[in-house]
Inverse folding.
């Protein structure tokens, strides 16, 4: 085939850079207990220490080790990204394939519904939901999946509609294949590229939303989060008047940026150069 | 043709009306299905700093006052008619009608979002078109790396950096609020300058948040247009670069406007973060504050208002596009 395979596309400079950053964060998340000796919730150190041999990035205003919060924060971000993107993938793909394959009025109503849903400003709605529910990471993951699956469904549905009228699917149906067989053998496998794009896009959304919600004070106190770190860093009145911003504010922000960037680069590499 | 257009405009309007109705319905049902019951959203939480203790009689009176003892469909009719009369109840925290708060905050958000939108759209179109024109060249490659990088920076982090650089280090701009408090202005110009200097940082931040999306959108649409035969024809006729770009731009403007309007809901999220970081007294900060105070009526009222603004902008974009592109509404 003249089309590049996914693997070949990933071997572009962008793809390799993105994967390298992503692997770096995955490594940190997995090896967290070996990288730092402090627990992220440990408040036994004295507050507002400058970086030194004991604390590579100093401590924050309640005496937590900033470096270990940074390291454990990668676990939270990656976990939210993984769960949200796969949740959206499963629900979105099921709804999209169903809607696109059935067609007709049902399809039209469903897609109208999705259009309406996409127009609603989602952050205020997330805040309303979060205000009624208790602040926990699982609630955030649930809300992000709830607000995200229509996007996945829409892309999948468009592709399913194209696939349904393509030659090999017609041929399979004429040969007597049932709906289930066609969907399983001919539609789902051809959706793999779109599924990977969905996972990448939803991971970006999940990481940015999780840190954003944590920044707004919606974070789960029992999971260290980069967003929470930024929230406390800039609400500390002296952060900009001393050098504390360098080891308190910047690392957390840069970690979010780098992790998101790694997904963006992988996504661009997968789309291929247009 | 004109009839077709007005038919199209009316049918789109109906769709937006249905959407708005659904948003109201979400707002109506959320407090009723969530833990805590509907009275929680009116009187506030039991577990907050100042717990609200209500005896049974008062509770019954309150339930009666808010029609909460009626069957659900009657409640819903009451709710819709209240909403249409702009009655969203009273704020728990400020103890004034929700509408008054919202109307006071709305102009600031419209100012912030409007200027940022104009800024990001103009620059996004210029850079996107240039990038598409020089497709595959160095500039294009560089932009395709820089823009996604900007997109990866969380809005609140970008805001914090801007406060540090332009507020604390250089002292060029004020970093919070929308005006200098208790200021005696010498005149209208003085007043305007004060507002503009307060607007500068949040506006730039929001524009930087919005622009990468606009850029990628314009670039993709223009790349498609540049591959069309009319561009080849124009080049063969020896038209100037500027003229060809103009043709491409006119042909791309309809999808660009539609997509930018569709991204407005996303921009609202950016506004919430940026207004919070810069303490800009708009709807975004109101949403944040009322979330922190668990001020449910204001939170829900703000959601309705913001949705209404987003829907209205989408409708205006639809109408504008139907005038720009004569084919709209024709099958």
């Amino acid at each position: 085939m003249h089309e590049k395979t996914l693997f070949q596309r990933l071997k572009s400079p962008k793809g390799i850079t993105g994967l390298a950053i992503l692997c770096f964060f995955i490594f940190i998340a997995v090896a967290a207990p070996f990288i730092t000796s402090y627990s992220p919730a440990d408040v036994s150190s004295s507050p507002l220490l400058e970086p030194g041999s004991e604390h590579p990035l100093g401590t924050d205003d309640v005496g937590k080790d900033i470096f270990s919060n940074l390291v454990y924060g990668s676990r939270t971000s990656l976990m939210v990204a993984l769960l949200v993107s796969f949740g959206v993938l499963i629900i979105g793909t099921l709804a999209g394939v169903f809607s696109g394959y059935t067609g007709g009025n049902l399809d039209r109503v469903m897609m109208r519904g999705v259009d309406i849903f996409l127009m609603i400003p989602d952050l205020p709605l997330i805040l309303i939901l979060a205000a009624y529910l208790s602040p926990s990471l699982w609630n955030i993951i649930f809300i992000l999946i709830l607000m995200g699956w229509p996007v996945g469904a829409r892309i999948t549905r468009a592709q399913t509609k194209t696939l349904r009228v393509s030659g090999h699917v017609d041929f399979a149906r004429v040969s007597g294949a049932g709906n289930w067989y066609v969907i399983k053998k001919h539609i789902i496998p051809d959706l793999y590229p779109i599924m990977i794009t969905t996972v990448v896009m939803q991971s970006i959304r999940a990481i940015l939303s999780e840190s954003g919600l944590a920044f707004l004070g919606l974070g789960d106190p029992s999971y260290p989060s980069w967003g929470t770190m930024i929230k406390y860093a800039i609400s500390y009145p002296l952060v900009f008047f001393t050098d504390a911003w360098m080891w308190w504010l910047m690392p957390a922000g840069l970690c979010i940026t780098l992790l998101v960037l790694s997904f963006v680069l992988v996504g661009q590499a997968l789309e291929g150069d247009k | 043709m004109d009839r077709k257009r007005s038919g199209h405009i009316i049918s789109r309007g109906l769709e937006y009306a249905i959407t708005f109705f659904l948003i109201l319905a979400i707002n109506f049902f959320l407090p009723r299905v969530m833990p805590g019951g509907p009275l929680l959203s009116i009187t506030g939480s039991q577990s907050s700093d100042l717990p609200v203790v209500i005896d049974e009689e008062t509770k019954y009176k309150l339930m009666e006052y808010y029609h909460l003892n009626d069957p659900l469909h009657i409640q819903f009719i009451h709710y819709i008619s209240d909403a249409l009369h702009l009655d969203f109840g009273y704020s728990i925290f400020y103890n004034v009608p929700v509408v008054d708060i919202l109307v006071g905050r709305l102009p600031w958000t419209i100012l912030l979002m409007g200027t940022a939108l104009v800024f990001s759209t103009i620059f996004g179109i210029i850079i996107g078109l240039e990038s598409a024109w020089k497709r595959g060249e160095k500039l294009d490659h560089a932009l395709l790396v820089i823009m996604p990088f900007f997109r990866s920076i969380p809005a609140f982090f970008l805001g914090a950096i801007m406060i540090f650089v332009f507020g604390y280090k250089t002292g060029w701009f004020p970093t919070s609020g929308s005006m200098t408090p208790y200021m005696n202005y010498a005149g209208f110009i003085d007043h305007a300058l004060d507002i503009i200097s307060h607007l500068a940082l949040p506006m730039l931040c929001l524009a930087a948040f919005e622009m990468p999306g606009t850029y990628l959108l314009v670039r993709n649409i223009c790349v498609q247009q540049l591959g069309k035969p009319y561009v080849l024809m124009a080049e063969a006729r020896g038209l100037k670069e500027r003229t060809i770009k103009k043709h491409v731009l006119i042909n791309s403007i309809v999808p660009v406007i539609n997509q930018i309007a569709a991204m407005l809901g996303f921009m609202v999220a950016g506004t919430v973060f940026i207004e919070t970081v810069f303490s800009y007294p708009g709807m975004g900060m109101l949403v944040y504050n009322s979330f922190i105070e668990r001020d449910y009526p204001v939170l829900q009222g703000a959601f309705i208002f913001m949705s209404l603004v987003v829907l209205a902008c989408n409708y205006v974009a639809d109408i504008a596009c139907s005038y720009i592109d004569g084919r709209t509404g024709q099958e």
